[in-house]
Write a structure and sequence with these properties.
alpha/beta, seven-stranded parallel sheet, 28 helices, 33% helix, flat
Length: 822
């Protein structure tokens, strides 16, 4: 094939005719080792008001596997009009994300080989098509890089579990699994995996356990958690392949429904009568609370020898096992010879408690920010509500008593006191009303909602307030609002229904801490914070209740309503998943955030203000679809009633180009930003007059976060973008759109055109005056009223001598509009 012929081929042709044959010739198996167009992200979910789109998903042209799920090489292909190494930079970016050491770029003439291991003096080498390395050659390089001995290699190459359904690990799960297996193969016995809530820690743990178990490296395994629902769902879903070798360390029998609707009885490893452990199983799952306790008779784990378990996996390890003096740590200390893997979304690091001190530096981390960026996790909006009593505090009158006759201590009470030391009934009612208003404004009152309260008593009062606000729906079903706390057996029994996407009730649940971690609430669309959250660890866990995407119910984002300033954690450098919108409603404002706010700026991965061609709409805005205290005795509380509580002044917070909150007024922020872009009025006028398409300037400003429509509302005058910018940025006296249009009419600038062309220009001028349209030169405008009644777009363009004549006429009209401005 000649060079000319080759250059006419598409990238796909280059792959088919040159790259794949070269791989085949080098001994790579097309069925088990070569994969083309491997998509490894889902595409970021981008929320613009109620318009929800997915960005472009990333894919590698080729990934080469030594064995399934053991990738060792990546190839980026380009057509022959590109140089051989034209795809290398993109390939290296993908390889870093995917943790792949050997990278190639090709245009069909040859390969550029980049060795990321750093073991060779020459980092990049050009290879002919016939010189592509054999699988064994690259594997030997990989082994040397990892320092794997033959016995370790055997474990590293153990097969993943394949259920024949086509399900495979996501790229970050695969990296976590492989890194953990490699570390254990080399003898590491304390490991920590940090993966954001909703990213599949349990499935990741299953594959790790499965491979070690099948390799014969770990024969008796314990999986520890601190929620019954976590153990039960794990057994019937992710861990199901272990079958009859698996049992629960419990005396309470239970029948659980699987994801596919079938029910299964959980096998138990503890005899109820004698509380003896059956040691014939290999995989055990248990609650900390079920096998230990403060009394000696509760320490069931001591029945087992210290070397009984080879491997222990601790789910949500930040909760109990992180503390050296916790009752749960004693289980890990008893089985100290076992390899122990801690799983958490939020490693706890304080002066007194440290996951890293116990487990070591994380083997792998996958953050909330990465999950949102890749499209695996749902982004979210934040509504910050400031109640007057929260901002101003509450001071009792001299001798004031609460509703039970207790004299209230004279001091100023604030948010830290409310519902802990001081109960203000009107405040609770106000919160319940705001939550209910949000659900009503959204158009769907059946969005699964979690309200986090100060304690179980506050959760009970909040439940009552929400019931009163939603009496109509409570009449339909008394489980519409429920309290789910540890002391309420009826409520706790409803956790399964709350997290079941197919169960309608309960809809709103109030809780204190029971639902803050571990509960897989896939369809939760609203989280309400009415208690302080001092811990970053707990804050991330609470946010994680809403981050799961649920495609079937079109749940792609969620909303967090904050009454207690808990979202101040966004300012903490340890927080890594900023919201897409922050809104602070005033007393008379709707609770739901406005829909006309552009996406936040993201320096690393910028989002355009409007959907691009590489985005696909997944929720149409025209059819909004948003369906569906430890230790000691409790402190004494005062109960206040009768005083009204209201929402104080509105403040909307914007995000600047660096993703930081802008708390100044929109007008001041816009003026400062415009002055940075245009040093003077002359500089702005020069650009405005030199650009024929005025809309281009507006679009550029929108990309920098300058929102002209809300800015015009704040200024309160009917100005077009030109006058708005001149007035706000340079203090120029403005003309309204009507005044500018009238000046054009007075000058009678349309006389040189025929009758129909004049009618079109006059209609365009009227559209500018009425609606502020700036894209007047776009022929698409001729398809809408009133132009559609004048003729077809082609007929109307002909009256100007064609499209160039039309555009020239419109540019003259725009010049007339701004005549004298320069």
């Amino acid at each position: 094939m000649t060079d000319l012929d080759k250059k006419s081929l598409s990238e796909r042709d280059i792959c088919t005719k040159f790259i794949t044959p070269a791989l085949r010739q080098a001994g790579w198996d097309e069925i088990s080792q070569i994969r083309e167009e491997v998509y490894f992200t889902k595409g970021r979910i981008i929320v613009r008001g109620k318009l929800v789109t997915r960005g472009k998903a990333n894919f590698a042209d080729y990934i080469l596997y030594y064995k399934p799920n053991i990738p060792i090489a990546l190839i980026e292909a380009k057509d022959n009009r590109h140089p051989v190494g034209g795809g290398m930079q993109q390939a290296l970016e993908y390889a870093e994300t995917l943790d792949i050491p050997f990278v190639f770029s090709s245009n069909g003439d040859a390969f550029i080989f980049h060795d990321r291991t750093g073991r060779n003096d020459q980092r990049e080498t050009e290879l002919s098509l016939k010189e592509f390395p054999r699988p064994e050659d690259l594997w030997q390089k990989y082994r040397a890089w990892k320092g794997l001995a033959p016995a370790q290699e055997e474990i590293v190459l153990q097969n993943y579990h394949d259920d024949a359904s086509g399900k495979e690990p996501r790229y970050y799960q695969r990296i976590a699994i492989n890194k953990t297996i490699e570390a254990i193969a080399k003898g590491q016995n304390r490991l920590l995996l940090v993966m954001a809530t909703g990213t599949g820690k349990t499935y990741t743990a299953f594959q790790i356990i499965w491979r070690l178990w099948k390799a014969g490296r770990k024969q008796r395994i314990l999986y520890l958690a601190d929620r019954n629902v976590l153990i039960d769902q794990t057994m019937v879903n992710d861990f199901r392949p272990f079958g009859k070798t698996m049992a629960k360390l419990s005396t309470g029998s239970k029948t659980i429904e699987r994801e596919d609707g079938n029910t299964i009885a959980l096998p138990l490893a503890v005899d109820k009568k004698h509380r003896r452990i059956d040691t014939s199983y290999e995989i055990y799952l248990g609650l900390y609370q079920a096998i230990t306790g403060p009394e000696e008779r509760q320490k069931l784990y001591r029945e087992l020898s210290r070397d009984f378990f080879d491997l222990i996996v601790i789910d949500e390890c930040h909760r109990g096992s992180a503390a050296a003096d916790s009752a749960w740590r004693e289980i890990l200390d008893h089985f100290s010879s076992a390899t122990q893997i801690g799983l958490t979304a939020t490693p706890k690091e304080t002066t007194y408690v440290s996951n890293i001190h116990y487990f070591g530096t994380p083997v792998y981390s996958y953050s909330l920010k990465e999950g949102i960026r890749d499209g695996f996790l749902a982004p979210y909006k934040v509504v910050k509500v400031h109640l007057d009593v929260d901002v101003e505090g509450y001071r009792p009158r001299t001798g004031e008593t609460d509703k039970y006759g207790n004299e209230i201590e004279d001091r100023i009470y604030n948010q830290k006191d409310y519902d802990r030391n001081l109960v203000i009934d009107k405040r609770t009612m106000r919160v319940a009303r705001k939550v209910t208003d949000f659900l009503k404004e959204s158009g769907d009152r059946f969005q699964k909602t979690i309200v986090f309260c100060v304690d179980v008593e506050h959760a009970a009062r909040m439940r009552q307030a929400l019931i009163n606000e939603n009496a109509d729906l409570m009449q339909q079903n008394e489980r519409y609002v429920m309290r789910i706390t540890g002391d309420d057996a009826e409520g706790t029994a409803q956790i399964g229904n709350f997290i079941d996407p197919e169960a309608t009730y309960p809809v709103i649940v109030t809780t204190s801490r029971l639902l803050s971690t571990g509960v897989d609430a896939q369809t939760c669309r609203l989280i309400v914070l009415d208690r302080e959250v001092g811990s970053m660890t707990e804050f991330k866990q609470i946010v994680g209740r809403g981050t799961r995407v649920h495609e079937d119910t079109k749940k792609y984002y969620f909303t967090l309503i904050d009454f207690r300033k808990a979202t101040n954690h966004f300012a903490d450098p340890d927080f890594d998943g900023e919201p897409v919108q922050i809104y602070e409603p005033g007393e008379d404002d709707p609770v739901a955030p406005p829909d006309d706010v552009p996406p936040p700026a993201d320096a690393e991965h910028p989002i355009p203000p409007k959907p691009g061609e590489d985005e696909r709409i997944i929720v149409d805005p025209d059819k909004p679809d948003i369906t569906i205290p430890p230790g000691g005795s409790p402190p004494r509380k005062y109960y206040i009633h009768g005083s009204e509580v209201s929402v104080i002044a509105e403040r909307i917070e914007y995000l600047d180009e660096y993703g930081k909150l802008v708390t100044e007024t929109l007008r001041d922020y816009s003026k400062k930003t415009l002055r940075k872009r245009y040093a003077s009025l002359t500089a702005f006028l020069k650009q405005w007059n030199s650009v024929e398409r005025k809309q281009a300037i507006i679009e550029e400003l929108e990309q920098e976060g300058i929102l002209l429509e809300p800015l015009a509302e704040e200024v309160g005058k009917d100005l077009d973008p030109f006058d708005l910018i001149c007035h706000v940025a340079f203090d120029q006296p403005p003309l309204t759109r009507r005044e500018r249009a009238e000046n054009v009419r007075k000058r009678d600038v349309f006389t040189k055109y025929g009758k129909q062309a004049r009618a079109v220009l006059e209609a365009l001028l009227q559209k500018y005056q009425d609606e502020g349209v700036t894209s007047l030169d776009d022929p698409q405008i001729l398809k809408i009223s009133p132009f559609d009644a004048m003729g077809t777009p082609i007929e109307l363009l002909k009256t100007f001598g064609g499209r160039p004549g039309f555009e020239q006429a419109v540019h003259e009209l725009q010049s007339a509009l701004y005549q004298g401005a320069a």
